[in-house]
Amino acid sequence: MFGELEALLLHPEVVNRKIVLLSIVGAFRRGKSFFLDYCLRFLYANYASIKNPSNLINADNWIGAAETPLEGFTWRSGTQRDTTGIIFWSDVFLTGDRAILIVDSQGLFDNETSTADNSKIFSLVTLMTSIEILNLQGLIQEDHLQYLQFATEYGKFMTSPGQEHKPFQNFVFLLRDWNNPDEYPFGFDGGQKYLENTLVVKPHHPEELKSVRTYLKSSFEKLSCCLLPYPGKTVARDSNYDGRWASMDEEFLDELKILISSLLKSENLTTKKINGIEVNGKQANEYFQQYITIFQSNSSIQPQSIYETTIDKFLTALVLQCFQIYKNHVNQTVGNINNETEITNVLHSSRNAALSTYDGERKMGNAEHIQKYRNDLDAKMNNDSIEWIAIAMARIAKIREEQRRAAEAAREAERLRLEKENQERLARERAEQAAREQAEREAEAARQAEILRQQQAAIAAEQERQRLAEEQRQREIAEQQRIEAERAAEEARRQQQQHHGRRRKKCSVM
Ligand SMILES: Nc1nc2c(ncn2[C@@H]2O[C@H](COP(=O)(O)OP(=O)(O)OP(=O)(O)O)[C@@H](O)[C@H]2O)c(=O)[nH]1
Ligand SMILES: [Mg+2]
């Protein structure tokens, strides 16, 4: 049962929804499973479920076709008991923020099961249920009420001073084969009147039944009773009957439809509450598992031990919730811690936030319980704070180390900057120097070139002058030669002329 129940309650569609748990208990072989199967028809027609997320069945005709055989929880005719133990329907119905689980249970008051086991089944179902149907045939008998003793005993703890909440929610006496409709008519109205008369405390009642009657109202938020007619011979006796409603007596069918529609309509689906607080799938799973473990391991269950377990679960959950407030607070602020004073302040305010939530929440148990779990919360926070202080101190040390490193890095960066600046300055100066030297070299080269040019020009001028002088000298030489040639020619001419003269004279002398 553990695994199946856990899988249902922790299903993603269920885990955060509030739980409605409808169960049926009561005498064996009295149509419990049969009744639940008609409930399933209504539920599938009216609500989505985890296995059937979009229900397409016509809700107005939830009862289905007249000839359709009945399916769901196994049921059968005869005297041999059918359902054993506690069985959860393998699907969960969903409506708004609620999830509906259906529980069938083994028939009580049979010859095979001991009173202790009957009582265990009844008690466990009662603890887990928010709508519990006690299925009985005919009248409510005194021995039926004894099964409610656990619930009422448990209720006594819950109604002790300081506990204002009823431990259980809806309890429905469902009386089958009612054959006094003239006195008490079928349905809830007749049932309510019958119940009120039955629960009156009378002097002849044994003490425990007086106690049951006295505490029943303070144990359940709502007590009701519904009277159903005899379903007809086929339903009651035919060993081949397949559950179709075509074979039911009309009166029974009408009352069945009214009962189921009323029981399961959305506004009547009471959620499971523990200490007056609605529980979701996750929380229900924790409580239920605890209960199941106790019921499996103990032969006789004392309401006190269940009560204490519930207190423990409840206050432990509250302590965890408050501790989480403290944890969130310190974790959120750890990033802002810069010094030791802030550590003290954060721890103080976080601790106060958690404790004031604990003090302000509705709680279960007496003052002693409440103080004990408060001390636990305090101790838990103190333990955690040791670790947290170490984290915060490490953070401060880290901040300081980072600051030191940052300063060092800044110094180093400044040194590097200056060094770079210096190097740049030197490079600049060297470049300027080189440029200057280059310019000087270029100027010198230009000057040398100019000198060279001037020298070359002077040489050229000199050469030109010499050439001209040479030319002049040549010309003068040539002139001289010409003059001398002319003179020689003149001389020659003159000598010639002289020669000629002397010859003519000789001739004439002759
Ligand atoms: N007399 C009578 N019989 C009914 C009624 N409803 C169903 N039955 C018949 O009762 C027989 C037993 O039905 P189940 O649903 O198996 O009964 P149960 O209470 O679940 O039985 P266990 O699981 O063995 O405890 C079947 O033959 C049903 O047809 C009813 O209102 N009155
Ligand atoms: Mg059954």
From TrEMBL:
Alphabetized Pfam families for the sequence: GBP
Compositionally biased spans, kind Basic and acidic residues: 462-494
Gene3D superfamilies (UniProt xref): AHSP, P-loop containing nucleotide triphosphate hydrolases
Chain positions covered by the region annotation Disordered: 422-443, 457-510
Residue ranges with Basic residues bias: 496-510
Protein name: GB1/RHD3-type G domain-containing protein
GO MF term (any one): GTPase activity
Species, as recorded: Polypedilum vanderplanki (Sleeping chironomid midge)
Keywords noted in UniProt: GTP-binding, Nucleotide-binding
